[in-house]
């Protein structure tokens, strides 16, 4: 770190996936370093802030290229030139931006093996094609994704927590259930040091698919009805929930008191960070208090955990669900725990509202019709209707809106008005 410390302290907070943007990096610790191939280093680093001790989940995966000089076309990948230490005089950059490094990474995934603590593994029944040109996806996200020849997509996890990442565990389990709504992983990368953790997953790429967010915005711009697609999406999500319930242990209905306490704690924490939230705390807390006497709802089970229109793809007439990592800011144990499927439904309902607010004038009736259609589609297959679990749905939608407020305040302040409008509605009217 003698060569990299100063460079990374300036570079990390500018990255979309770095969680500590609102806190100065006061310390960087090297957890592991492996040479993937000449001129390319794999690092796990821990970023320390003002907290003592440093949170265990402030660990990041970096794949760095080291060269004498960097091609001008890779200017966006530049981290800087090392001035001291063993890399003094060399240029350091994010290697995932470089086609050669990305191709060599795919080659490592094609051939199971090891490199220091790194383990390259895959499905023995699905060979991975060679020689596929890579391209880096530019979409805003909390990880980094590479597409190889329109055949595969590699998600490189940036914020690393110990254990098996749900975005590997869940699709593998759903493939075992014969669920075709989720692309099954074909290869993956993990580490055994300093602890067991998933680092990346390679899956089939749905080349002709469009994500639900883009489709919804397109429908809004054209003045088109989106309710048929929303209805089918509801059915697709019910199908995934049924497969998840078959693949993982299911809990008993109830536990609302524990859920309410956790929601209230998240609300208090968010209000400490976002002053605009504080006037609405009493009304929002009422939504959580209502869980004590409401219908307990369906049994707890594994869920998606961060469902919205950007996490679903439509290819032809079929909907697919992706990105089972859950909310990266939450502990891995929580993301892997059994929860109410209403949480996923609330996430999608909030997403319809987000889409409707992207155009002026706001189209609340468009969002309302989509919400109704999604719930109706879900009910037609799931055997229960989310609309009949009003208090439960309101609590989960409130919890989701609180999360959105905190997220937007930290990452996209210009968007803060979108979840704050929902906060006011949920706190005052409760609908």
Structure characterization notes:
- It is a single chain.
- The chain is of the alpha+beta class.
- The strands form three sheets. A seven-stranded antiparallel β-sheet has the order 6-7-11-12-10-9-8, covered by helices on one side. The protein has a five-stranded antiparallel β-sheet with strand order 1-2-3-5-4.
- It has three domains: 5-95; 100-204, Phosphorylase Kinase, domain 1 (2-Layer Sandwich); 210-428, Aminoglycoside phosphotransferase (APH), C-terminal lobe (Aminoglycoside 3'-phosphotransferase, Chain: A, domain 2, Alpha-Beta Complex), CATH 3.90.1200.
- It contains twelve helices and 15 strands.
- Strand 9 (144-148) and strand 10 (152-156) form a beta hairpin.
- It is globular and about 65 Å long.
Query: Mind telling me the C-alpha Rg?
Result: 22 Å
- Sheet with most strands: 7 strands, antiparallel
Domains (count)? 3
Distance between the termini: 53 Å
Per-chain topology:
Elements: H1 5-11, E1 27-37, E2 40-48, E3 59-67, E4 78-81, E5 91-94, H2 99-110, E6 113-115, E7 118-122, E8 134-136, E9 144-148, E10 152-156, H3 166-176, E11 187-191, E12 197-204, E13 210-211, H4 212-222, H5 227-247, H6 256-273, H7 281-289, E14 312-315, E15 318-321, H8 332-335, H9 342-356, H10 364-382, H11 390-411, H12 417-428
Antiparallel strand pairs: 1-2, 2-3, 3-5, 4-5, 6-7, 7-11, 8-9, 9-10, 10-12, 11-12, 13-14, 14-15
Helix pairs in contact: 3-5, 4-9, 5-10, 6-7, 6-11, 7-12, 9-10, 9-11, 11-12
């Amino acid at each position: 770190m003698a060569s990299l410390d100063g460079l990374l302290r300036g570079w990390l907070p500018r990255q979309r996936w770095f969680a500590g943007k609102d806190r100065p990096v006061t310390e960087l610790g090297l957890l592991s370093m492996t040479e993937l191939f000449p001129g390319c280093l794999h690092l796990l680093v821990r970023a320390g802030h003002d907290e003592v001790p440093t949170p265990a989940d402030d660990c990041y995966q970096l794949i760095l290229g080291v060269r004498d000089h960097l091609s001008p076309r890779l200017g966006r990948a530049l981290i800087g030139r090392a001035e001291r230490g063993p890399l003094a005089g060399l240029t350091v950059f994010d290697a995932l931006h470089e086609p050669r490094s990305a191709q060599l990474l795919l080659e490592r995934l094609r051939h199971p093996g090891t490199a220091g603590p790194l383990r390259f593994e895959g499905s023995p029944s699905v060979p991975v094609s060679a020689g596929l040109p890579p391209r880096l996806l530019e979409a805003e996200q909390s990880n980094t994704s590479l597409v190889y020849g329109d055949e595969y997509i590699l998600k490189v996890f940036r914020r690393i927590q110990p254990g098996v990442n749900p975005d590997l565990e869940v699709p593998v389990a759903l493939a075992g259930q014969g669920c075709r709504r989720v692309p099954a992983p074909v290869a993956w990368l993990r580490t055994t040091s300093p602890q067991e953790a998933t680092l990346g997953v390679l899956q089939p790429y749905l080349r002709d698919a469009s994500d639900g967010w883009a489709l919804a915005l397109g429908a809004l711009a054209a003045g088109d009805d989106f309710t048929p697609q929303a209805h089918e999406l509801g059915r697709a999500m019910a199908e995934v929930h049924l497969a998840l319930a078959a693949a993982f242990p299911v809990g008993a209905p109830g536990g609302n008191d524990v859920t309410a306490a956790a929601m209230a704690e998240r609300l208090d924490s968010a209000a400490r960070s976002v002053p605009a939230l504080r006037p609405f705390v009493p009304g929002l807390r009422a939504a959580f208090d209502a869980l004590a006497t409401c219908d307990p709802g369906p049994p707890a089970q594994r869920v998606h955990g961060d469902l919205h229109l950007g996490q679903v793809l439509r290819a032809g007439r079929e909907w697919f669900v992706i990105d089972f990592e859950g909310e990266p800011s939450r502990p891995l144990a929580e993301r892997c725990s059994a929860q109410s499927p209403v949480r996923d439904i609330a996430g999608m309902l909030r997403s319809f509202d987000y889409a409707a607010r992207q155009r002026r004038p706001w189209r609340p009736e468009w969002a309302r019709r989509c919400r109704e259609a999604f719930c109706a589609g879900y009910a037609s297959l799931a055997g229960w209707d989310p609309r009949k679990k009003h208090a439960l749905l309101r609590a989960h939608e409130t919890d989701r809106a609180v999360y959105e407020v905190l997220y937007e305040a930290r990452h996209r302040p210009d968007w803060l008005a979108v979840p704050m409008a929902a906060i006011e509605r949920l706190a005052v009217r409760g609908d």
